[in-house]
Amino acid sequence: MRILVPCGPALALALILAAPLAAHDYRAGALRIDHPVIRVASPVSKTGAGYLTITNTGKTPDRLLSVTTTAAARSDLHGTVQRGNVMQMRARASGVPVPAGARISFAPGSLHVMFIGLTSPLPEGRRIKARLHFEKAGSVDVEFKAQTAATHPR
Ligand SMILES: [Cu+2]
Fold it and tell me: Phi, psi at residue 134, to the nearest 5°?
Protein backbone atom coordinates (compact mmCIF):
# COMPACT_ATOMS: atom_id res chain seq x y z
CA MET A 1 0.00 0.00 0.00
CA ARG A 2 2.88 2.37 0.59
CA ILE A 3 3.63 2.52 -3.13
CA LEU A 4 0.09 3.58 -3.99
CA VAL A 5 0.06 6.54 -1.64
CA PRO A 6 2.07 8.98 -3.80
CA CYS A 7 0.33 7.93 -7.01
CA GLY A 8 -3.06 9.42 -6.21
CA PRO A 9 -1.93 12.98 -5.54
CA ALA A 10 0.52 12.94 -8.46
CA LEU A 11 -2.17 11.89 -10.89
CA ALA A 12 -4.60 14.46 -9.50
CA LEU A 13 -1.99 17.19 -9.90
CA ALA A 14 -1.32 16.18 -13.49
CA LEU A 15 -5.02 16.41 -14.28
CA ILE A 16 -5.31 19.83 -12.66
CA LEU A 17 -2.34 21.13 -14.64
CA ALA A 18 -3.70 19.76 -17.90
CA ALA A 19 -7.25 21.07 -17.50
CA PRO A 20 -6.73 24.82 -18.14
CA LEU A 21 -5.06 24.21 -21.51
CA ALA A 22 -7.88 22.06 -22.79
CA ALA A 23 -10.57 24.48 -21.65
CA HIS A 24 -8.72 27.62 -22.81
CA ASP A 25 -8.88 29.28 -19.44
CA TYR A 26 -6.30 30.74 -17.11
CA ARG A 27 -5.84 31.25 -13.41
CA ALA A 28 -4.00 33.88 -11.42
CA GLY A 29 -4.51 33.71 -7.68
CA ALA A 30 -8.24 34.07 -7.08
CA LEU A 31 -8.91 35.18 -10.65
CA ARG A 32 -10.09 32.92 -13.44
CA ILE A 33 -9.95 34.12 -17.03
CA ASP A 34 -12.15 32.24 -19.47
CA HIS A 35 -12.03 31.87 -23.22
CA PRO A 36 -10.33 35.00 -24.58
CA VAL A 37 -11.31 35.53 -28.22
CA ILE A 38 -10.53 38.27 -30.72
CA ARG A 39 -13.20 39.02 -33.29
CA VAL A 40 -12.15 40.41 -36.65
CA ALA A 41 -14.34 41.35 -39.61
CA SER A 42 -12.03 39.41 -41.92
CA PRO A 43 -8.65 37.68 -41.60
CA VAL A 44 -6.89 40.79 -42.93
CA SER A 45 -8.64 43.32 -40.67
CA LYS A 46 -6.35 45.77 -38.92
CA THR A 47 -8.59 46.06 -35.86
CA GLY A 48 -10.26 43.49 -33.66
CA ALA A 49 -12.32 43.33 -30.49
CA GLY A 50 -11.20 41.10 -27.64
CA TYR A 51 -13.70 39.36 -25.38
CA LEU A 52 -13.19 37.25 -22.26
CA THR A 53 -14.71 36.55 -18.88
CA ILE A 54 -12.95 37.33 -15.62
CA THR A 55 -14.19 35.69 -12.42
CA ASN A 56 -12.94 36.78 -9.03
CA THR A 57 -13.36 33.80 -6.70
CA GLY A 58 -11.60 35.58 -3.84
CA LYS A 59 -12.56 38.05 -1.12
CA THR A 60 -10.41 40.92 -2.38
CA PRO A 61 -11.43 43.28 -5.16
CA ASP A 62 -9.05 43.54 -8.10
CA ARG A 63 -8.87 45.61 -11.26
CA LEU A 64 -7.79 44.94 -14.82
CA LEU A 65 -5.48 47.86 -15.52
CA SER A 66 -4.39 47.18 -19.09
CA VAL A 67 -3.73 44.62 -21.79
CA THR A 68 -0.49 44.54 -23.75
CA THR A 69 0.50 42.57 -26.84
CA THR A 70 3.11 42.59 -29.55
CA ALA A 71 0.43 41.48 -32.06
CA ALA A 72 -1.04 44.99 -32.40
CA ALA A 73 0.17 48.57 -32.28
CA ARG A 74 -2.30 49.32 -29.47
CA SER A 75 -4.64 47.40 -27.22
CA ASP A 76 -7.03 49.59 -25.24
CA LEU A 77 -9.78 48.77 -22.77
CA HIS A 78 -13.10 50.06 -24.10
CA GLY A 79 -16.57 50.29 -22.68
CA THR A 80 -19.69 51.15 -24.64
CA VAL A 81 -22.18 53.88 -23.77
CA GLN A 82 -25.50 54.59 -25.44
CA ARG A 83 -26.10 58.16 -26.62
CA GLY A 84 -29.65 58.32 -27.93
CA ASN A 85 -29.69 55.69 -30.66
CA VAL A 86 -25.94 55.64 -31.05
CA MET A 87 -23.56 53.29 -29.28
CA GLN A 88 -20.23 54.92 -28.58
CA MET A 89 -16.99 53.32 -27.50
CA ARG A 90 -15.23 54.89 -24.57
CA ALA A 91 -11.70 54.24 -23.39
CA ARG A 92 -11.58 52.92 -19.83
CA ALA A 93 -8.52 54.79 -18.68
CA SER A 94 -8.84 53.67 -15.07
CA GLY A 95 -9.29 50.04 -16.05
CA VAL A 96 -12.07 47.60 -15.30
CA PRO A 97 -12.94 46.78 -11.67
CA VAL A 98 -13.30 43.10 -10.78
CA PRO A 99 -15.11 43.08 -7.41
CA ALA A 100 -14.76 40.17 -4.99
CA GLY A 101 -17.06 37.34 -6.05
CA ALA A 102 -17.94 39.03 -9.35
CA ARG A 103 -17.88 37.75 -12.89
CA ILE A 104 -17.08 40.40 -15.47
CA SER A 105 -17.99 39.60 -19.06
CA PHE A 106 -16.41 41.36 -21.98
CA ALA A 107 -18.94 40.90 -24.79
CA PRO A 108 -20.18 42.49 -28.03
CA GLY A 109 -21.94 45.79 -27.31
CA SER A 110 -20.23 46.09 -23.96
CA LEU A 111 -16.71 45.87 -22.57
CA HIS A 112 -13.98 44.85 -25.01
CA VAL A 113 -10.28 45.05 -25.63
CA MET A 114 -9.77 47.18 -28.74
CA PHE A 115 -6.84 45.83 -30.73
CA ILE A 116 -5.66 48.48 -33.19
CA GLY A 117 -3.00 47.98 -35.84
CA LEU A 118 -2.88 44.19 -35.95
CA THR A 119 0.52 43.18 -37.25
CA SER A 120 -0.38 39.94 -39.03
CA PRO A 121 -3.42 38.28 -40.62
CA LEU A 122 -5.79 36.51 -38.23
CA PRO A 123 -7.51 33.58 -39.86
CA GLU A 124 -10.11 31.74 -37.81
CA GLY A 125 -8.48 29.90 -34.93
CA ARG A 126 -5.13 31.72 -34.98
CA ARG A 127 -4.07 32.80 -31.51
CA ILE A 128 -2.35 35.97 -30.42
CA LYS A 129 -0.44 36.25 -27.19
CA ALA A 130 -1.33 39.03 -24.81
CA ARG A 131 -0.66 39.94 -21.20
CA LEU A 132 -3.35 41.09 -18.80
CA HIS A 133 -2.17 43.43 -16.06
CA PHE A 134 -4.12 43.32 -12.79
CA GLU A 135 -3.71 45.66 -9.86
CA LYS A 136 -3.37 42.83 -7.31
CA ALA A 137 -3.01 39.56 -9.22
CA GLY A 138 -0.22 40.99 -11.38
CA SER A 139 0.46 39.93 -14.95
CA VAL A 140 -1.28 37.01 -16.62
CA ASP A 141 -0.27 35.69 -20.05
CA VAL A 142 -3.19 34.56 -22.18
CA GLU A 143 -3.96 33.81 -25.80
CA PHE A 144 -6.87 35.37 -27.68
CA LYS A 145 -8.26 33.00 -30.29
CA ALA A 146 -9.35 34.57 -33.57
CA GLN A 147 -12.95 34.46 -34.74
CA THR A 148 -14.09 36.10 -37.95
CA ALA A 149 -17.44 37.84 -38.44
CA ALA A 150 -18.31 35.43 -41.26
CA THR A 151 -18.45 32.45 -38.93
CA HIS A 152 -19.56 34.35 -35.82
CA PRO A 153 -22.06 37.05 -36.84
CA ARG A 154 -22.34 40.06 -34.56
CU1 LIG B 1 -13.63 49.73 -29.02
Answer: -105, 150
